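FORM 12-B: Structure-to-Sequence Request
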């Protein structure tokens, strides 16, 4: 092995690893898919219905990466997806739980179906994914589980009761699962992004954006790539970090 090869491999610490990124076709999920691919992983890009967006992301990824449509709120669909990923790649080393949905409104006017949709996708979906992926990670004695929460789960936000509840629930979930799986060589961590420029936040009215930026010490929104850098750290470099929430919010939650 040449020095150049050794150096190249050091820049690709996930070479030979497989990562499943849910909600991986847009926004933060797409950026994480690209970042982990750059680190050497083959990426299983999960998405719900948007095949075109998934195809665009896959064009940027390492050869062998592939699309995996599934609704993470559907336990059977998740079981089938994880089983198929394992059959194709032989292992599942990094699980990035990013898929989520937002429905808002004052709690006394929030429709029960909207509450259920948010919680079933973000929180129950995480349970489905971890439950399906852990047996293979335990057999291998290695795993990195990265859960995308939100600063809203830390500080709350008016009109976001369902989203806040789901994202806060993920933080407790991460701590519990980290304690259950550490002995198996598996780390479980969360990222809590602040206001990030994505298709979802593009719908926030200008007045609301201004209020959030005024509260953010860095006085700007984050980018999907900045959240992806945090995910790479947790996947590649944080071997002695588990049960932790990495807040990437420009200081919003201070």
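FORM 12-B RESPONSE
SEQUENCE OUT:
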């Amino acid at each position: 092995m040449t020095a150049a090869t050794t150096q190249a491999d050091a820049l690709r610490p996930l070479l030979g690893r497989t990562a499943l990124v849910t909600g991986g076709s847009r926004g933060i999920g797409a950026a994480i898919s690209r970042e982990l691919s750059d680190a050497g992983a083959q990426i299983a890009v999960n998405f719900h219905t948007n095949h075109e967006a998934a195809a665009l992301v896959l064009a940027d990824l390492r050869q062998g990466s592939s699309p995996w449509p599934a609704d993470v709120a559907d336990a059977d669909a998740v079981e089938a997806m994880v089983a198929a990923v394992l059959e194709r790649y032989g292992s599942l080393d990094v699980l990035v739980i990013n898929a989520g949905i937002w429905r808002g409104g004052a709690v006394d006017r929030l429709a029960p179906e909207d509450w259920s949709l948010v919680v079933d996708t973000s929180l129950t979906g995480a349970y489905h994914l971890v439950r399906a992926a852990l047996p293979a990670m335990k057999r291998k004695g290695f795993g990195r589980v990265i859960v995308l929460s939100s600063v809203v789960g830390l500080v709350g936000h008016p009109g976001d009761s369902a989203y806040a509840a789901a994202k806060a629930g993920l933080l407790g979930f991460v701590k519990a699962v980290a304690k259950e799986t550490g002995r198996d060589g598996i780390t479980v961590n969360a990222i809590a992004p602040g206001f990030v420029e994505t298709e979802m936040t593009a719908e926030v009215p200008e007045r609301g954006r201004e209020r959030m930026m005024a509260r953010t010490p860095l006085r700007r929104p984050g980018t999907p790539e900045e959240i992806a850098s945090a995910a790479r750290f947790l996947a590649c470099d944080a071997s002695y970090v588990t049960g932790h929430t990495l807040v990437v919010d420009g200081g919003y939650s201070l």
